[in-house]
Amino acid sequence: MIAATLAGALLLASQTPAPSEPLPRALITTEYGPITLELDHRRAPVTACNFMRYASAGLYTSGRFFRSVLGPINVVQAETIHGSDDPGLGHIVLERTRDTGLGHVSGAISMARNGPDTATSSFFIVTHDSPSLDFGGTRNPDGQGFAVFGRVTDGLALLYHFQGFPAIEEQIQPPVTMLSVVMLDPVPVACLHGQP
Known about the structure:
Elements: H1 2-15, E1 25-30, E2 33-39, H2 45-56, E3 64-70, E4 74-79, H3 97-100, E5 108-111, E6 123-126, E7 147-154, H4 156-163, E8 167-168, E9 171-183, H5 189-192
Antiparallel strand pairs: 1-2, 1-9, 2-7, 3-4, 3-9, 4-6, 5-6, 5-7, 8-9
């Protein structure tokens, strides 16, 4: 019994990143240049791993940044080639900002959704602090907020640029193509094994 408990603890420790270990990065290459992301699988494991699965499978390739919102929230939203309602790999559980400690500050990357636990593939990047997207915020009538799972480390100026493009009812004209979205670092073991 003690041996089994110890083995379980060692397995868990081997899958848990050391606090000093850098978070995995992803690279979005657009027709206008690159955007580098840092994905926080420690605080938002379900959502970050979900994004990494899409990126690793090439499901964002040829997708696009299609939506720009300027006030009262400030975001640019992306979708796969199959659209923002792409069922993709299925719905994921909503990781509320109340629980993760991550907020919708400038540069945050978060998952789009309709109701709680309905997010699949569409994500958005915050261009200016938008706390109404957090848990308890007023952006969504259910007050549950959206799931932040990382941040832009390089290329935020491109998102500002996209927000300057013509838009009709928040739809960027024309949308900005994502030529590829790839992982720059290995996907954490927990993500590869379908955890958490």
